[in-house]
Specification:
This protein is mainly alpha-helical. It is built from nine helices and no strands. The protein has one domain. The structure holds protoporphyrin IX containing FE (HEM). Pfam families: DUF2306.
């Protein structure tokens, strides 16, 4: 297989192609680090209170999260939080090229577990949004936005799994990259919201008491659709082999790298860290 084959187009040829490959890798590394901070928060907040036998303290963040006597609903929430940890850590492992090449068996098993986690998180999430009263999400617009995210997770997981089974590896890689981004949707929502709050020096476009408003409705769709659109642009630029298109994609990604770093810093400092201390 040469570096011109479609499966390896992402490695890039020529200065523009190689730059795009490097900027993409840098963004991915930053995203994985940012998701690791999210995992540390989930472990340090939800995990710590669960281990101390005080899951009711989860309600400091999710006002109606833990409900005494609601075994089924509480289990769905606990499972949701547990699988948050496995899916975010598992995603990093799956994308690590060395592991894919050196330990393909581990890649396959971790991949199966990743898909199972995706299934549990999206179905459990849908159940909570549409059946639990007073869950910590805004109005109908946001419910539809996060439900679209769940639907995309399910569809991409299916398409990625099927492509791997049929040994269509370039296609498998594309669907899995899309799955990784939509699984990260809730993380994009949080870093996007915190960046917005910092840039605007306060809540703009939504009511912080009801957690409703046009900006949050927009964000609940953008958390899924915007990363997918950017990925599609990058994939087209890689496949086109046209330097102008590749430079444009690199410049867009470089800007998004800065925005992502800003969002991670803002979410860590304003949302996650204060809940750990
Ligand atoms: C697949 C990736 C997902 C991850 C990693 C994830 C992670 C989390 C985390 C960490 C929380 C706790 C809130 C916080 O402390 O920030 C949470 C809450 C919640 N998630 Fe998810 N989630 C995912 C997908 C979904 C989906 C697709 C839905 C809905 C369709 C959903 C619905 C909810 C709801 C409703 C809550 C709040 C529960 C309550 O208020 O009782 N999640 N999620």
């Amino acid at each position: 297989m040469t570096s011109h084959s479609p499966a390896l187009a992402w490695l890039g040829t020529g200065l523009a192609g190689r730059t795009l490959a490097r900027v993409s890798a840098a963004w991915l590394l930053l995203a994985l680090l940012g998701q690791l901070v999210f995992v540390i928060y989930v472990l340090g907040f939800y995990g710590r209170h669960a281990l101390a036998g005080q899951p009711e303290l989860w309600n400091q963040v999710l006002p109606h999260g833990w409900r005494a006597g609601h075994t089924w609903g509480n289990s769905v929430l606990a499972g949701h939080l547990l699988f948050t940890i496995t899916i975010l850590l598992g995603g990093g492992l799956q994308l690590w090229p060395r592991l894919r090449h050196k330990a393909p068996g581990l890649h396959r098993w971790n991949g199966r577990f990743y898909l199972l986690s995706a299934l549990i998180l999206s179905l459990g999430g849908l159940l909570m949004v549409w059946t639990r009263e007073g869950v910590g999400l805004g109005g109908l617009g946001q419910h539809l936005g996060i439900s679209l995210n769940a639907l995309f997770i399910l569809v991409f997981a299916w398409l990625g799994w099927r492509a791997a089974r049929q040994r269509r590896m370039a296609e498998h890689r594309r669907w899995m990259l899309r799955l990784f981004l939509v699984v990260g949707g809730v993380w994009f929502f949080r870093i996007g919201l915190m960046l917005w709050l910092v840039v605007n020096q306060g809540p703009v476009g939504f009511d912080p008491k009801t957690f409703e408003g046009p900006f949050l409705t927009f964000l609940s769709f953008a958390q899924t659709l915007l990363p997918l659109a950017v990925l599609q642009g990058v994939l087209w630029a890689q496949a086109s082999q046209r330097p102008a298109q590749q430079w444009a994609a690199s410049a867009t990604l470089a800007l998004l790298l800065l925005a992502t770093a800003g969002g991670i810093a803002a979410a860590s400092a304003l949302m996650w860290w204060p809940r750990l201390v």
